[in-house]
Amino acid sequence: MTSLNDLDLRQLEAFSAxxxxxxxxxxxxxxxxxxxxxxxxxxxxxxxxxxxxFLRNGPRIHPTEQALRLHEYVETALMSLQQIRLRANEIWKxxxxxxxxxxxxxxxxxxxxxxxxxxxxDDSVQILSDSxxxxxxxxxxxxxxxxxxxxxxxxxxxxxxxxxQSRCVLALKEDDPLAQKSLVSLGDLxxxxxxxxxxxxxxxxxxxxxxxxxxxxxxGVIETNSSVNILACIRAGLGVAIMEPVTxxxxxxxxxxxxxxxxxxxxxxxxxxxxxxxxxxxVLALVEALKQAAASMLPEFTCLDADAHSRVMQxxxxxx
Length: 320
What we know:
Layout: H1 9-21, H2 24-31, H3 35-49, E1 54-57, E2 60-63, H4 65-93, E3 99-103, H5 105-110, H6 112-116, E4 125-129, H7 132-140, E5 146-150, E6 158-167, E7 169-173, E8 183-184, E9 193-197, H8 203-213, E10 220-224, H9 227-235, E11 241-243, H10 245-250, E12 256-261, E13 266-274, H11 281-297, E14 302-304, H12 309-318
Parallel strand pairs: 3-4, 3-5, 8-12, 9-10
Antiparallel strand pairs: 1-2, 5-13, 6-13, 6-14, 7-11, 7-12
């Protein structure tokens, strides 16, 4: 295997372009290079790493399994390099660094847009939508200046700004018989198929405990890691869902209605910033705008101080 020091950025860009565009010809147009030049870059990369990246069948090429695995890391590296280019250019032009916001998908789609509409930010904004764990990591490392996520929020290097409390709701298809009720009983969910979050350790664990306590047994579940997928499955008539209220009220979907449950399942989320640097004025303005948007959007919304975090987490751990 040739030394990896022989890897060239142009080789990685050519590899990524061929994977994304599906052919050397299309990649050459994207990169504004000749087709032979792109072919040569791919061949040099294959020589450097020691295994083929594409299977060739006449004019057609197909990525190998190793190529698809490698592509994930190459894309991450190229995106990081692009960020370095942008930051370097901003420093040269003495421009402000974009405000990077890390948020879980429900927060980035259900709450953040409404908050951004309330403030007139001069800063450029970048939104990083990822899991709660990755959102926390972005704040801990200082990559993001603002984080919006469900609890827990207290981590080393993280400053909690405020905690929001609301209650979970039931989402169901508009022609479902239960949609005629303004208040749905947990017992009504017996033998109904549930659309649930894939992660069993956060909200799903809590409402499954409530269902067990009420001796309610669903007919089965469909799991997904996306709140948007949950709503789409409901609209298709595949089941009902106990949902966090931010997506339910912040991202309404035609054909899906929201109803309250006869039992309160609290939902907690909050806003964080890095402890390593004080928030700039635009961040503080957005922290307040998020609070206002949540109060306007979510029924029975309560804003708690940051020091309530330990008490809230203790109460969640005690739920049985």
